[in-house]
Design brief:
The complex is a heterodimer of chains A (138) and B (314). Chain A is built from four helices and five strands. With 138 residues, chain A is α/β, with parallel strands linked by helices. A five-stranded parallel β-sheet of chain A has the order 2-1-3-4-5, sandwiched between helices. Chain B is built from 13 helices and eight strands. In chain B, helix 8 links the parallel strand 6 and strand 7. Chain B is α/β, with parallel strands linked by helices and 314 residues long. In chain B, helix 2 crosses helix 3, helix 4 crosses helix 10 and helix 12 runs antiparallel to helix 13. The interface between A and B is large, with 38 and 46 residues.
Chain lengths: 138, 314
């Protein structure tokens, strides 16, 4: 009867390279929530440095970029900003990206609400990231 | 980060973030953090923003944070959003509403999911506030879930409670009256450009005249968070409340607060045990409940008896 405080993971989600305000981004966020993840939803991407700072303050395990149509350059910028901030342990995930690989990208998922196996993959990545963060004793 | 207690006291961003995580998840590091934080508590002024959904709490809190920064005060922000009772997941959307994408060394924002805890905060919120206090924040702004009525918990952690509502909603006023009017130190009618704002403010003033316990009569202010109108007056009024020394008169002592947290934590543990334990005795109690042989109160005591016996037997 030990109350458990473990949770499957905390995610920072941001829209990259979408012009119109995107309902499908919100659907993805809701899908992640329904998969048990805690999602800090920060809307439209503005600046890689600010994003890294948010990720640091929120101490997230994953960053999900809602990025249909986004090219490799914002993804690379964000990966570099995470490196500079000492946040290499955070898993960077692109959702709906045309790019299947980019430096620093841990996974690519579909843009729609995630299915069971995708959620499983994200939870696993989150757990890896949490283990790699070193907590207070980094 | 081996010297994390010193770094935490200096407000190091990475250490503060990870200390909060440890407290939130009650990891093995949590006790050491409580011990490191304990001698340094009580310096920050804690301001709670609560009120029904849609009143513009986040936007107003964001405008207030901007005003504090103009006054050169450092700010910690704790924003609580509800967890889904089904999946345990949550969407935490206050951060962007509060601070946009601003990069400011003087502001540290942390979003928390309520994780099943009722009362408008999360179980760990009070401790997260303590960590920010010890990290040297001048002001800690706390935003509650905003479910409407059961937000009184913020009264225990905030020195100054700001209750935010929108104009002209009869139900809105009812909700406030039912639960949180009693805790308000300052009432704000946000979206003051809307019709009925003046009338709503007047109604609230009328209700408030009757509820002063501390000699402080809660003022009713009008703001427009979106353009900043009235926000400097709000900041002045909060500071006035702090200087008057009435702030936190019904603010619970740390021991009292801990008692409440213990009660709520024990309640959660008990609830999950009764809900899920594979125990035929519990089934029998439920059967008797179904047949009307015992009342809920009696049944609860019977269930507790099982636990007591188990504790004595072990």
């Amino acid at each position: 009867m030990q109350a458990s405080n473990t949770h499957p993971g905390k995610v920072l989600m941001v829209e990259v390279g979408t012009d119109e305000h995107d309902r499908s981004a919100q659907a993805l966020a809701a899908g992640l929530r329904d998969g048990g993840l805690e999602v800090v939803f920060t809307g439209r991407f503005a600046d890689a440095g600010a994003l890294a700072r948010s990720a640091l303050e929120e101490d997230v395990d994953l960053i999900v970029l809602f990025a249909p149509g986004a090219g490799p350059s914002p993804i690379a910028d964000i990966a570099a900003a995470l490196d500079r901030a000492g946040l290499r342990h955070i898993g960077l995930v692109a959702a709906g990206s045309g790019e299947q690989t980019a430096p620093g990208l841990a996974a690519v998922i579909g843009a729609g609400p995630p299915e069971g196996d995708t959620l499983e993959k994200l939870r696993k990545l989150a757990a890896q990231s949490r283990a790699g963060s070193g907590g207070l004793h980094k | 980060m081996s010297d994390w207690p010193a770094l935490l006291r200096q407000g190091d961003r990475a250490v503060l973030a990870r200390a909060i995580t440890a407290v939130e998840n009650e990891t093995a590091d949590a006790p050491a953090i409580y011990a490191a934080v304990y001698p340094h508590l009580g310096k920050a002024h804690v301001v709670g923003f609560t009120g029904p959904p849609g009143a513009g709490k986040s936007t107003l809190a964001g405008a207030y944070i901007g005003e504090l920064r103009k006054r050169d005060l450092s700010v910690g922000v704790v924003a609580v959003d509800p967890s889904s009772p089904l999946s345990g997941g949550a969407i935490l959307g206050d951060r962007v509403r509060m601070t946009g994408h601003a990069e400011d060394d003087g502001v540290f924002v942390r979003s928390l999911a309520s994780r099943g805890h009722l009362g408008g905060l999360s179980r760990s919120a009070a401790r997260v506030i303590d960590v920010m206090d010890a990290a040297g924040k001048d002001v800690v702004v706390v935003e509650t879930v905003g479910a409407g009525q059961s937000e009184v918990e913020v009264a225990e952690v905030a020195h100054t409670k700001v209750v935010v509502c929108a104009p002209g909603l009869g139900d809105d006023i009812q909700a406030i009256k039912a639960g949180i009017l009693e805790i308000a130190d300052i009432l704000v009618v946000n979206k003051a450009d809307l019709p009925l704002a003046a009338r709503t403010a007047k109604q609230l003033s009328g209700m408030l005249g009757l509820t002063s316990r501390t000699g402080w009569i809660p003022p009713v202010l009008r703001t427009q968070a979106t353009n900043g109108a009235g926000v400097d007056e709000l900041a002045d009024t909060i500071d006035h409340h702090r200087r008057e020394g009435v702030a936190g008169r019904d603010h619970a002592s740390p021991l009292r607060r801990m008692r409440r947290l213990l009660a709520s934590s024990a309640g959660e543990t008990l609830q999950s045990w009764i809900d899920t334990a594979d125990n035929p005795e519990l089934d029998r109690i439920c059967e008797r409940l179904l047949k009307g042989e015992v009342t809920f109160d009696q049944a609860a005591r019977l269930a507790l008896d099982i636990l007591t016996r188990r504790a004595e037997g072990s």
